[in-house]
Structures are given as structure tokens and as C-alpha cells.
Amino acid sequence: MRLAATFLCFFVYGFAAAEWAIDVDYSVQNDAGAGQPSYSPLGAILIDRLPDGNFTGRFRATDGITKQLEEKLVEAAKNPQSIYRVRTGNVFSFNEPCLLLRSNLAHLIQVAIDPQKQTIFSISLFPDGLYEAGADYNNCQGVQLAPNARFSANVRIVKSGELPTPDTVSYLQKMERERQARQHGAQQDNRSFIAKYWMYIVPVVAFVVISNAMTPEQGGSE
């Protein structure tokens, strides 16, 4: 019985553990031009490798983030110049605070990664489930969160990698071999001009001979 309980604990821990974790911070700035933003922990993106070689992600939010984020977004949405940012390392994205309120704090975070080097190329933030915001998308007057609204984040992983560098050395070597082959072929062709182009010369000579042969006959008939 004790052995079964130990195995169960190990299985749950192994299932919850992620291959790669990415810390994500957020900043709600009431005025986008008010200096450097101050960031706070939003949570972490947990990335797992699938059997087919692709990757999937899930978000583990910081405790108490719903209340913190709601208060800051509501206050920032009063100013159309406010901005909501998320970042991981030196890579960041931003969106309108009002859009996140309209989506009831539902986030969609897309991350482009290089899995071999565990490097982040880009992070993009969208209000999840919000398909139409209208022309006044940054106007939050009268917008209220649903009573059961809670912070949530869906994660979309895009696997990217470095493009292969061109094989310049092999290309130059191929060009050199073709050049040498052309030169070698030209040196071997030592035939005379007539030997090379007799098929063009013979018709011309035949035409001239026939023309000269017909000219006296025409003069005698006259």
C-alpha cells in the first residue's frame, strides 16, 4: 500500500513538472510616456515536449494575481494613454488595458521559441475570446468584469529555429569546377574553322555554284 502511494506521488509530480519554464512579468502604466515601467510577477509559462516533437504550453499564475491585475487595469483604463505590458527577459509585448477588461482578464499569450537553445524569439499578448472591440476599443466607460471573472491565460507555442546558412564554399567550388571544365573543353577542340562549320559553308557554296551555272544559259537565250 505504501509502495502504491509512493508511485502515485511520483506520477503526479512527473506529470506536473515541465521541461522548460519561462517567467513572465507584467506592468500596467497609467501613462505610456511617464518613464520606465515597473514590473511585477504575472506567472510562468510551462513548456512541454509532445511525442511528435512539437511543444505545448500552459500558464501557472502568481497567487492573488486576479485582484491585483483587476485593480490596476481598472485604474489604468481611465486614461486612453495607458498601456499594459508583459515581458520575459528582454522580450516584451503590450496591449490596451481596456481590451483585457473586456475579455474578463482572459489572456492569449503566443511565444516563439528555439527549443534547441531554449531561447525566446518573441512573445505576443492578445485578449482571449474577444473578437470584436469596435472603434472605441480603448474606451472602458461602462465596462465591468463578469462577477465570476478570473485571470486566465491560454498559451500558444510556435517552434522556430535558425535558418540554415548558405554553403558558400561548396557553391564556389562548384563554379570553379564548371569554369575549368569549359576551359578544358575549349582547349581540346583544335579543329580548323572549316571542320567546325562545314555544315553552314556547304549550302552557301552550292548556291553560288548553281547561280553561276545558270547565268550563261540565261544570257544565250536572250
From TrEMBL:
Record organism: Steinernema hermaphroditum
Major localisation: endoplasmic reticulum
Organismal lineage: Eukaryota, Metazoa, Ecdysozoa, Nematoda, Chromadorea
Family: Belongs to the EMC10 family.
Pfam families assigned to the protein according to its UniProt record, in alphabetical order: ECM10 (PF21203)
Protein name: ER membrane protein complex subunit 10
Compartment(s) where it occurs, according to its Swiss-Prot or TrEMBL record: Endoplasmic reticulum membrane
Membrane topology of this protein: Single-pass type I membrane protein
Signal sequence coordinates: 1-18
Alphabetically ordered keywords of this record: Endoplasmic reticulum, Membrane, Signal, Transmembrane, Transmembrane helix
CDD domains: EMC10 (cd22209)
One of the record's GO cellular component terms: EMC complex
